[in-house]
């Protein structure tokens, strides 16, 4: 009987890793064993090479054989019953085989039931520990003032539970570029807090897998993978889908990346919200580290707790921004007198700029510009303001990628990539533009971005610092995203300025009429005197 090694031997590089079929690597990590049993006849269709040790038989005496040949009837029935309970897939089934205990997890593919055996460890969380863990999280939830503080509590607690050297929370933006939003680490290792990574660091197929299987462990980055085998019928046997697998081996590119970072083991928990990946809890250890199933589930509970709080905390953070913005609005109203002269005052312009946390502000009023902040030369600014007034003079316009709307955006360089434009009145070119510069100009790196952690010039793989450089390329021509409270504040202040200016114009017009009447009255009096 011919057997086929299913290991994916495709050459994966930086340029093609985004198309790598990581759900079918054809191999597993060596901390467990895998069997796939056909749903119809209970024959073993796939198994990992190390099953020869588990059953003390060669592969050709395992593959194609009935599952019941390797277990007594009671054990086989118990395993079969457990495997059918898909709602308990994350709950391990403890099982004895010979003199060793295993915990087994099972999941279903189209044709097979896949069972993964891990040696059972007594290390784990008993019920009292789980109670105190839940109590601590509830305390953190109550006392954390914002989402970032809550995330910090989660990484601190996750590190206590798992014992990893570093625990981080990555938070994704709308394009899946990531930032280290919270971090707990040993004092002796370099901080990554606040660093940015491009979306390519976690390619789309990896993000999709995290939505389907929310926890992932690499116990030993340096370990050799264990090949999966199947009977080579007609030499076209397809590899088995390991999307739900705990043991699934990793992409060679990812392993190389971890090696370059000096990471020996990882554990990752996906944070998803409304069917979309919001972020990750990422645990790193400098040496190999295996954590048993019960510890993984206890850590996973942290992710579930946090996910349940994301919307609430984001709304609370937005409310805090609203309160801060209202204070800024009130300060602005106090110094805006309604006259055109007040718009030209530096204090007004600075506070108007700060209202939207912008880098610059420009007011166009009666063909005069009042401005403050980082801006390009006048000719280029004139072209932009003319375009905004002509194209968006009757509507609100906002963008964090000006080049998508304005053909001449490239000529502005990095000074103007984000714009909020609000018209002052209708059918005029009067308006206010808030400006933000390129995002990569406004973030800082926790060290020298030119200093690579990998000193091997021949190795072109990513490192955190090289990855940050790629992130800067990814966000060129893009500013920080405008937040909803900022846009609302812009609309309110523009309405207020518009009313003030309109009132000022009416008062000026009234004064002109009064002056005219006074002059007419004086002229009439003079005529009457002459005629008298």
For the structure shown, list the relevant keywords:
single chain, 532 residues, alpha+beta, Beta-Lactamase, eight-stranded antiparallel β-sheet, six-stranded antiparallel β-sheet, 12 helices, 19 strands
Description of the molecule:
This protein is α+β, with helices and mostly antiparallel strands and 532 residues long. It has 3 domains: 3-119, PAS domain (Beta-Lactamase), CATH 3.30.450.20; 127-225 and 245-313, 2-Layer Sandwich (Beta-Lactamase); 336-438 and 461-498, PHY domain (Beta-Lactamase), CATH 3.30.450.270. 38% of the residues lie in helices and 21% in strands. The strands form 3 sheets. Strands 1, 2, 3, 4, 5, 6, 7 and 12 form an 8-stranded antiparallel beta sheet that branches. The chain has a 6-stranded antiparallel beta sheet with strand order 10-9-8-14-13-11. Strands 16-15-19-18-17 form a 5-stranded antiparallel beta sheet, with helices on both faces. Strand 8 and strand 9 form a beta hairpin. Helix 3 packs parallel to helix 7 (293-335). The radius of gyration is 32 Å and the shape is elongated. It starts with a strand and ends with a helix.
């Amino acid at each position: 009987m011919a057997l086929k090694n299913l290991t994916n031997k495709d050459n994966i590089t930086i340029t093609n890793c985004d198309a790598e079929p990581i759900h079918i690597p054809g191999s597993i990590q060596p901390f467990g064993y895998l069997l796939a049993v056909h749903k119809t006849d209970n024959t073993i269709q796939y198994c990992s090479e190390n099953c020869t040790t588990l059953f003390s038989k060669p592969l050709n005496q395992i593959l194609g054989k009935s599952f019941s040949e390797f277990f007594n009837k009671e054990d086989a029935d118990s395993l079969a019953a457990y495997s059918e309970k898909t709602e308990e897939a994350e709950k391990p089934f403890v099982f004895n085989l010979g003199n060793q205990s295993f915990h087994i997890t099972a999941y279903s593919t189209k044709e097979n039931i896949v069972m993964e055996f891990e040696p059972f460890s007594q290390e784990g969380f008993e019920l009292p520990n789980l109670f105190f863990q839940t109590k601590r999280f509830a305390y953190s939830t109550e006392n954390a003032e914002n989402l970032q503080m809550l995330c910090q509590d989660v990484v601190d607690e996750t590190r206590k539970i798992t014992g990893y050297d570093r625990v981080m929370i990555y938070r994704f933006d709308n394009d899946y570029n990531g930032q280290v939003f919270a971090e707990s680490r040993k004092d002796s290792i370099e901080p990554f807090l606040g660093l940015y990574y491009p979306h390519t660091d976690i390619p789309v197929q990896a993000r999709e897998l995290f939505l389907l299987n929310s926890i992932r462990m690499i116990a030993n980055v340096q370990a050799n993978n264990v090949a999966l085998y199947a009977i080579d019928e007609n030499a076209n046997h397809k590899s088995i889908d390991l999307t739900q697998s705990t043991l699934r081996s990793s992409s060679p590119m990812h392993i190389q990346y971890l090696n370059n970072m000096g990471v020996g083991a990882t554990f990752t928990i996906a944070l998803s919200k409304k069917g979309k990946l919001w972020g990750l809890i990422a645990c790193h250890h400098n040496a190999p580290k295996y954590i048993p199933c019960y510890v993984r589930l206890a850590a996973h509970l942290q992710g579930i707790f946090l996910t349940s709080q994301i919307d609430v905390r984001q709304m609370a953070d937005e409310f805090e921004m609203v309160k801060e913005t209202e204070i800024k609005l009130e300060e602005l109203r106090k110094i805006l007198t309604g006259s055109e002269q007040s718009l030209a005052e530096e204090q007004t312009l600075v506070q108007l700029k700060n209202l939207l946390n912008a880098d610059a502000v420009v007011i166009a009023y009666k063909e005069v510009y009042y401005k403050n902040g980082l801006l390009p030369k006048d000719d280029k600014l004139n072209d932009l303001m003319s375009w905004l007034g002509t194209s968006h003079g009757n509507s609100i316009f906002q963008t964090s990628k000006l080049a998508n709307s304005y053909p001449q955006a490239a000529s502005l360089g990095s000074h103007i990539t984000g714009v909020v434009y609000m018209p002052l009145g209708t059918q005029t070119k009067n308006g206010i533009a808030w400006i933000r510069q390129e995002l990569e100009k406004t973030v800082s790196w926790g060290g020298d971005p030119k200093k690579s952690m990998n000193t091997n010039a021949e190795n072109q793989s990513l490192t955190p610092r090289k990855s940050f450089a790629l992130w800067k390329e990814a966000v060129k021509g893009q500013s920080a995203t405008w937040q909803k409270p900022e846009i609302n504040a812009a609309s309110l202040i523009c309405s207020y300025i518009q009313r003030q200016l309109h009132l000022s114009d009416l008062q000026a017009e009234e004064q002109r009429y009064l002056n005219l009447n006074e002059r007419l009255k004086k002229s009439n009096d003079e005529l009457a005197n002459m005629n008298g």
